[in-house]
């Protein structure tokens, strides 16, 4: 029987177990520092909030869709709504009300800046019948469904020779 295993090269230097332990602690502290740096930001600047702002509820009945969006403290003049047969776009701007005076800001968590939300609709809507209402920070949009087009039967004449 022939031994066909490859020779293993061993390192000449000895690594003491205590040194290995300190290397693990150094690695752990480096990783902790990286995560602290990564998550050291204000919640108002979170880029992921932009895609989910404003929060919405979309409900459906047999004849219409009803969309409710939370937009507290926003002037309705700063909201733009565009509707296509298969989606609705809500754009606007949340004004920053904080004025720098003698006081400083300790925590800023409220969202401010521009936003855009595009919501795909499960069925086509009648663009002409869309209505919007804004009251107490809630934007309510009624989107009537378009009538499904019914194919009309067409009589086909048969040609004879």
From TrEMBL:
What PROSITE patterns does this protein map onto?
Answer: CS (PS51203), SHSP (PS01031)
Question: What domain of life?
Answer: Bacteria
| Family matches, as SUPFAM superfamilies | HSP20-like chaperones (SSF49764)
| SHSP domain residues | 47-161
Q: Where is the CS domain?
A: 51-157
An example of a Pfam family matching this protein is: HSP20
Q: Which family does it belong to?
A: Belongs to the small heat shock protein (HSP20) family.
- Name of the protein described by the UniProt record: Spore protein SP21
Recorded source organism is Atribacter laminatus
